[in-house]
Request: fold
Amino acid sequence: MDSFEVPRVLDAPSLEDLYGELYQPMLRLAYLLTGSRPVAEDVVQDCFARLHRHWDHVRYPTGYLRTSVVNACRAHHRRAHREQAHFSDLVRSEVTPETPLILDALAGLAYRQRAAIVLRYWEDWPEADIAEFLRCRPATVRSLVARGLKALRKVMAE
Reply:
């Protein structure tokens, strides 16, 4: 090992083991954040490919992967928002009849609200960790969750 490399603290013995262990949980996380299985599959696959490229330098592969998935989902929403803004009459974000109600309701939330709710209730993350990922304060996470839940209750009651 070169003197400038950080020794890895392995939380999985190999990339293949990590893939087998974390593919489904990362797919679920990406799906809940994007609302689209094909997008979620692409995001997760890209994140594993990125992890593979940096495998020798990643100290905490599980954390690196989870961070990559959350950030890639955020980037997906930014791109989609820009595309809708530039091509608003060409891009439709209508909900299909077969989409489950909760996913429809989640899709209607602002990205930060959706991310806070998904990370809190589906991934069971503490507020401090969510705040770190969303680059905000824990009080902001509580506000995002509260407002998001209020919006979800309203949609579910309709």
